[in-house]
Write a structure and sequence with these properties.
Helix content: 40-55%
Radius of gyration: 22 Å
InterPro entries: CR006_AAA, P-loop_NTPase
CATH class of the largest domain: Alpha Beta
Number of domains: 2
Organism: Streptococcus loxodontisalivarius
Pfam families: AAA_13
Largest sheet: 6 strands, mixed
Number of helices: 13
Order of helices and strands: HEHEHEEHHEEEHEHHEHEEHHHH
Shape: globular
Number of strands: 11
Structural class: alpha/beta
CATH architecture of the largest domain: 3-Layer(aba) Sandwich
Distance between the termini: 52 Å
Strand order of the largest sheet: 2-8-9-1-10-11
Protein name: Wobble nucleotide-excising tRNase
Strand content: 5-15%
Length: about 375
Amino acid sequence: MGKRLEEIAEELKQSQKSVQLIYAFNGTGKTRLSKTFAQLVQGDRGSLTRDKILYYNAFTEDLFYWDNDLENNQEYSLKIQPNSFISWIIEEQGQDQNIITNFQHYTDDKLNPNFDLRNNQIIFTFQRGNDEDVEKIKLSKGEESNFVWSVFFTLLELVISERKIVEVEERSTRDFDNLEYVFIDDPVSSLDENHLIEVASNLAQLIKESNSEKLGLKFIITTHNPLFYNVLHNELGNANKHRLEKYEDGTYQLHTQRKDSPFAYHLFLRNELRAAIDNDAVQKYHFNLLRNLFEKTATFLGYKEWKEILPEEADDRARDSYKKRIIEISSHSKQSGDEVAALTQSHKNMLAYLFNDFESRYHFYKEETREE
């Protein structure tokens, strides 16, 4: 017997878990669930929704639309739908520079958003590093998704940093004092795998750093993307995992997901890493894939630490060194001391060595050699 969406929302609200992760196919009703949940949490209609819940969904992206300058095809601008949310983030919270920093982290440090709130628009320029005029550009769909997500992620970073301040009188803003929930619905609809993995990893890291149980914040994350789900599944080990199903009669069921991921993620990781090594196309995010592969295998084998997956010939000191380097490269830290700007050949060689050793010891062989 299925349930109404309002009952599913109530079920999520009654959970004591600080993080809930939900997988559902497109068209199931994830976005409607986020709005239903927000209405349930808001309760007092006299207050702003954001007083108690922040939520990201398709309607967040709809706050922006492009003016394509069809007449001249050169004065592109990203228009902001009239709303109080964007001006609140930028003008009241003063987060424009942090939004730019996050956006450039995902894209290119020469790609600059210029906020013009008086005219409700954002103009993007690209500085080529020479004497040429700055070029006004229109973002790709993926870049646009990265920008909108950067707005929300910047706000989330601010929320967590303020809520960490125990003495409320010392906080720079009191706007987040009553916040209870963060509901994130599919921030990855237009992202490639590289950015998708990075968004998932950064979000998981921020949630873990927030120590949400002490801060009194609860997170609900929904997605239709198996890769995004699996990265969060691996990173957020203590989260409640669900699968949302919609029946033909329009009712719903929230199934509890078993501890293991419902997708053959380890096979996906193996194939991606093998292809990158064979094609000399190793990038930073492949270290994140390698780390997730090691973590999943270590859990399956019952090891306490995934460094036990590292080469048997290495001693503890060498394994600690490998582990430290993998974490540094895969963490996407914004601190300049930790950030690896570009992979060197030695980094690529290290990844190939570690992965080849892993394949050899755990019998992940190429298809054509499996019978040998």
